[in-house]
Amino acid sequence: MSEPLLSVRDLRVSYQVGRNFVHAVDGASFDIPRGSITGLVGESGCGKTTVARALTRVIAENAAITGGQILFDGKDLAKIPEREMNALRWRDIAFIPQSAMNSLDPVYTVEYQLAEVLRRRGGMNRKQARARSEELFEMVGIDANRLNDYPHQFSGGMRQRVAIALALALDPKLIIADEPVTALDVIVQRQILDQLKELQTRLGVSVILVTHDISVVAYICDRTVVMYAGKVAESGTMQAALTAPSHPYTMGLRNAFPDLQGAASGILTPIEGAPPNLANPPTGCRFKPRCPFALDICGTEPPVVDVAPGHPVLCHRANESAALRIEAARTETWMAPA
Amino acid sequence: MDGPGMNMITKRPDILVSVFDAKLHYDVGGAFAAMRGKSTVVKAVDGVSFDIRRGESVGLLGESGCGKTSMGRLLLKLEEKTGGTIHFNGEEIGAVRGSGLKKFRSKAQLIFQNPFDAINPRFTIRQTLSEPLENADIPKREREDRIIAALELVKLPEPAQFLDRYPHQLSGGQLQRVVMARALILQPEFVVADEPVSMLDVSVRAGVLNVFRDVRDRLGLTAIYISHDLALVRYVCERTIVMYLGGIMEDGPTEDIVREPLHPYTKALVAAVPVPNPDQSHDPLPIGRGAPDPRNPPSGCVFRDRCPAAHARCAAEIPQPKPVGTRTVACHLY
Amino acid sequence: MPEIAAAAIIKSRRPHILARMFRALRLPMNDPFAVAGLLIYLVFIVVAVFADQIATHDPTEILYTPAYDLAADLRPGQDGFIMGTTSLGRDIFSQLVYGSRSALLIGITAAFMVALIGSIIGLVAGYFGRWVDAILMRLADIAFGIPFLPFVIVLAAFLRPSIWNVVIAMALVLWRDTARVIRSQVLTLRTRGYVEAARVAGSSDFKIILRHIAPNILPLSFLYGSIAIGWAILTEASISFLGFGDPDSISWGYMLQDAFASQALAKQAYYWFVPPGICIILVVSAGFFITRGYENILFPKLSR
Amino acid sequence: MKNFKAVGGRLLQLALVLWAVVTILFLMFRLMPGNPMAAYIDPTFTLEQQQQLMAQFGLDKPLWQQYLIYLGNLLQGELGQSFRYREPVGQRIWILLPNTLILTFSSLIVAYVFGILAGAYLAWRRGSWVEQAAIPLVLTTRAMPEFWLGMVMLAIFSFSLGWLPAGGTRAPGAEYSGFLDLYTSRDFLAHLALPAATLAIYSQGLPLLLMRSNMLDVMKEDFVTMARIKGLSNWTVVVRHAARNALLPVMTSFAIAVGYQLQGNVVVESVFSWPGLGRELVNAVAASDYPLAQGAFLMIALVVIFMNLLADLLYAFLDPRISHA
Questions:
Q1: Helix axis angle, D186-203 relative to D129-142, nearest 10°?
Q2: What is the count of structural domains for chain A?
Q3: Does the model's pTM come out above 0.95?
Q4: CATH of the structural domain C31-60+77-297, one choice from 1.10.10.10, 1.20.58.100, 1.10.260.40, 1.10.3720.10
Q5: In this predicted model, what pLDDT tens digit does every residue of C44-62 receive, in sequence order?
Q6: Going by fewer Cβ within 10 Å, which terminus of chain A is more open, N or C?
């Protein structure tokens, strides 16, 4: 496989809240291959958005990257000076926010905001910027004469298309999309995902899709990275990670998702308990309190085991995953965890 | 059915709720919009009719802005209808006032979408749950037991330890169970659940949904489950009503709708749902891209501007709901 | 208007009554400004209550030096007058002390009236809406149309001059700001889940207002009350300065009018007209500091 | 331009407010005890002379009739006769209004320019010692009686240092050819300096705090974060996006601040004996010259009401979310 566009090594990001520190990301490692869509999946509070924002190096005031590397095109984004990082922003790394509504400046027209990026960051003159804006709107399927409308005049779906156009403006190498379709209805969601997939394939740009919805990941992503409580539980190709999950958390997540094509009588099985408090995380495996297959050994820090090439799993019983997977499919396994 | 005879329906004992041609129109105003000739009247619910039998669970399915939440609020008199009639236990709820309203409230309850907002942050769980009991004049000494019973009903482990806690000290799943307990504490006959799990994490949702199903069966509740997620509706309701821009497109057994959708909008809705297995079809959706504008819906059938099968008649005449096999469909194709 | 935080993080056991009261009123005890504000208030309240004991002379009595000539325009420290005397030979320090009494009296009563009337009107308009809201808000627009100080002046000209004119005028007009802010707060509260939940649980409008809405607007009413104290004191001072004040009650405004009329500026008698101003500033800014009013002193955000 | 038919609602509301204020004004001046002209009736006058004088001012008719005459006159801009000067009130008001407006706008413009820049700066330097020191200072300017500040400024700059004149609008005896010549002469500006500075110091606190608070709110918005992620320069992010959005409510507050400032003028004009509407109202009330007081009050109220309307319109036009609904 060609050398990955981006590889994150043992990334640590923590927030300072009052006197104590919340370790939102506590040693996350994964690779993003070139020209692919990778899903970054996890429930609220697992650190996925923090990772996404860390890649842009625009993080909250009280947050700080406290460790690890972000290797992108031979540069370590966690360490390079701000000026050098800023040169990459939007030219190489672009961002699609969750609800484009308040991520577009309400008092400027959409054309102004496109031109602002094209001219200030892309070095284009007025005429070039106008032409490029029309081309971008064409690409995302919005009528070019809507360029001088204001953001509030666009529907949810259209705003998200504007956000995609903005992201593609300077032909970036990597686009990070933070829950791009979560706020949309299912039909518009599908149309936006199709568009994103089509543009990604045509332009060969790499995309990181951050979401909590594994059916969205299954629909559009080539690879997936599953996060839990600030760490990467498992990552791999779509087949490996979703159809044949090897980490108990992914297995549990899979059961909790209602599947329209599955049998009508299927029972949804919840994962009892709640994620740990990241201000003082428990020692050992963080999923232990909720894991039906937990053993005493799980009290110690779990190793990263490559269940298959490019399919690392953070679990003591990783190599028993085939057997655990069958047991995980039965509802009773989850009803009374060990 | 072209609208049941009024008295005939209200007499049938097995019908708990009967809605006939319900309308909710309100003027959004906006001086500048008015100036540009844009209509400022939003038809949130526009001529909706259906009946719900006792013990039946009905899903109200549709995208945002389709009127499903407004319909739910009309059923519970949280919003006053601007047209049509709604009967509960054979009695039109429009005129209900004073003690009649209090009785209706104890019989018809709502489970809120956002558990973090549905409980007063200054109230302890005990105070939250005793409010409905106070209103129903349940004597003070009986309240503690009924609160504990309600919390056990919704499977909150060791309920006693929660009584003196404040809402921000509970997780989303626990809070939603308290919200459900409050709705069920007076043993209502009818419950409207407005997207009860949409604010919860996936792993916690299943737990809350299982409690809802279990409680509904145990108390023999009649329930309306409002959602935009077909997979969740399918898990909870045996019948589904599909709504779009204030009107009913299709109404029938959930399994039939999932297996063989009839109305073009339902077809698109079912096809659009992403399922968590990688080899699902990626062909484009059979639907146009326009965004429904509730302020000026298209003439005739409200879906015609996005419908792949639209023809002349759709623009001229509003399609009346017609029985088609196990379903009722409002579309000129049938 | 910054959204009032829904709940303070508190320990699970029932908090101490005082802590709960302070939490309800959002009084930030750890904030130096608030503590300073409270201290200033305490000092002035003590001075106002024990004015008779603290003051060295009767504020209106014409005084003479031991050498029997008029103790006029004496500098601070001369002939035992701590802060000097006025051109009429009256003790400035005593006038200052008694001035605090009328300032606090007016300030607190006016603030109470403004906060009470404003909150009730805002509450009723915000909660019941429709025509009730329309009428009350048109009333507020009318009140906003009346220039306040000119109104007080004209009012003072008719009613027998007394310190209560300011309080009456404020009660008639200045409830407008509080009402508009409380109304917008109630409008947001009304849509909150737990208010609808109370309605669905069968609670009456009155009970909903009492238990769910009122406690959440208490901090706002208290905040506008403390701002109104400032307004009342400033207004009374202006009215007395313009000569419409209450002749037989000593107030800081009266002192300034007396100084201005007696050419204190030309005589550069800073010791005479600066202290009353400083006292006014201290008491009025204390009101702002206590409730961190400065975060909300600005206009209620004109959010439509 | 778009037609304003739909803004009728707002204009109707304006008419109601105007009518109400005018009526309140009428009642206030008629409900006072005793005879309104008591101060101007010479005790030696005979009964008929008194009646004749009263008739001249229409005070002999029943209240409601006086009200109708009063409204009729108002609509034609007729404000009646001043008891004291025996000349039309309107004429005097018209001369004095420019003085008040110049004082109000000059001080407010200075206050707003300073307030906006300082507010934005303090927001940008959130938490620094500069902010810790500046906020209490600004608060004291809000807690300061304007006339007292005027007195202190007068005492320092006029009496102690003698740099600036002590009051009025121009040196005694100075002649000016035209309107513009008067208002731009060094002499007038020297007279304007102190009162305008006093009002500016008092009113800069409002825009400063409003701008600072808005800036802090806007800086938290997603589109500001997005601007940083786009790699835009700090200047572009803070000025073009944050400040531009924060400025919106501040601009609309300018109109309302004019209304509040007019009330402040009453005392400041008296301290600096500045011949404006405020001082005229005070003197008229003191002299029980009610028609003149009524006229001055009405003019101030008109400007306040008009400014409140302007604020609403300004808000609607400045915010594209409303103008392009």
A1: 110
A2: 2
A3: no
A4: 1.10.3720.10
A5: 999 999 988 888 888 888 8
A6: N
